[in-house]
């Protein structure tokens, strides 16, 4: 009898401990209705009702705080991957420094201005190539300004020195332009320089195309680094598309008709007419060709459908 009652109330969802307490107080021969009333009086509830009564606890997260929810994590991943959409930047340090120094002084401040400009845009891969002999103390024939900037950029793993050495008192310098073009080509990046690298274009046909398409020229306007908004000409990509791996194509815009409402070309006009939005844009000949493609029966049915209210 005890086991049968235990099984009955367990199927209803009550706990075994509550059932045993009630049977001890009322006795093993108590009726099922009395046991049920005692369970209700004790406040015991079936497990299914308890699960419904306890709603899922939603954690309130303050704005700007970290969260482990998949939606916020996905948004965070998109924000972190925004820098991956930008191309690597390879800067010709000698060219930039001499341009900022008006071709008289090797101005390291010009290199810092260029690096800061690309940092503000979100580029994470920035490399500057400078010959190793620029670490030596400046001389009268090759003055250097703000040489301490080179040390700071080297500590940040941005500046790279191209090798050089002295043989019998003569300096042997490796060709730093080849380093610049090679690294930019391998990383599919952008070369920042006003040099055209014509000798390297003749040396390698693949580099020729790459230099023509990925060379970003610049200007210094009162200590301000300014690349052009149209690096490849007026009809080429914008600067933002030029520096991104996935360029965003502009929406096609119709050029408005210069004659406006006085235009006499009708449907043959290739320009945009805002007053003709609801009119057919096909010419008369094109409309006749389109009607020939459909049988006469279909055309008549379409006319009936249009005429019917």
TrEMBL record:
Keyword Nuclease: yes
Annotated C3H1-type domain residues: 251-276
Protein keywords: Endonuclease, Hydrolase, Magnesium, Metal-binding, Nuclease, Zinc, Zinc-finger
Keyword Nucleotide-binding in annotation: no
Organism domain of life: Eukaryota
GO molecular function, one term: mRNA binding
GO annotations of cellular component type: cytoplasmic ribonucleoprotein granule; nucleus
Pfam families in the cross-refs: RNase_Zc3h12a, UBA_6
Cofactor or coenzyme needed: Mg(2+)
Zinc fingers (C3H1-type), renumbered ranges: 251-276
Similarity annotation: Belongs to the ZC3H12 family.
Listed name of the protein: ZC12D ribonuclease
Organism: Chaetops frenatus (Rufous rock-jumper)
Gene label: Zc3h12d
């Amino acid at each position: 009898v005890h086991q049968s009652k235990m099984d009955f109330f367990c199927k209803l969802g009550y706990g075994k401990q509550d059932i045993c307490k009630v049977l001890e107080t009322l006795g093993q021969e108590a009726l099922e209705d009395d046991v049920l009333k005692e369970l209700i009086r004790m406040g015991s509830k079936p497990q299914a009702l308890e699960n419904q009564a306890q709603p899922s606890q939603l954690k309130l997260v303050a704005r700007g705080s970290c969260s482990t929810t998949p939606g916020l994590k996905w948004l965070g991943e998109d924000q972190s991957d925004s820098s991956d959409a930008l191309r690597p930047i390879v800067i010709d340090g000698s060219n930039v420094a001499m341009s900022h120094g008006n071709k008289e002084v090797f101005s390291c401040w010009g290199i810092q201005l260029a690096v800061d400009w690309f940092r503000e845009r979100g580029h994470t891969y920035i490399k500057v190539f400078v010959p190793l002999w620029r670490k030596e103390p400046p001389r009268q024939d090759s003055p250097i300004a703000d040489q301490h900037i080179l040390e700071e950029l080297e500590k940040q793993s941005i500046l790279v020195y191209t090798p050089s050495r002295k043989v019998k008192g003569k300096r042997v310098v490796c060709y730093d332009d080849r380093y610049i073009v090679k690294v930019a080509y391998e990383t599919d990046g952008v070369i920042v320089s006003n040099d055209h690298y014509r000798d390297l274009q003749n040396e390698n046909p693949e580099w020729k195309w790459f230099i023509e398409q990925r060379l970003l020229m610049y200007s210094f306007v009162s200590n301000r680094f300014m690349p052009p908004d149209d690096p490849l000409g007026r009809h080429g990509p914008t600067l933002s598309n030029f520096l991104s791996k996935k360029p965003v194509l502009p929406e096609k815009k119709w050029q408005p008709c210069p004659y406006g409402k006085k235009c006499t070309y009708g449907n043959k006009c290739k320009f945009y007419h805002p007053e003709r939005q609801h009119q057919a844009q096909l010419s008369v000949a094109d409309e006749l060709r389109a009607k020939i493609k459909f049988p006469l029966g279909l055309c008549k049915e379409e006319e009936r459908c249009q005429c019917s209210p």
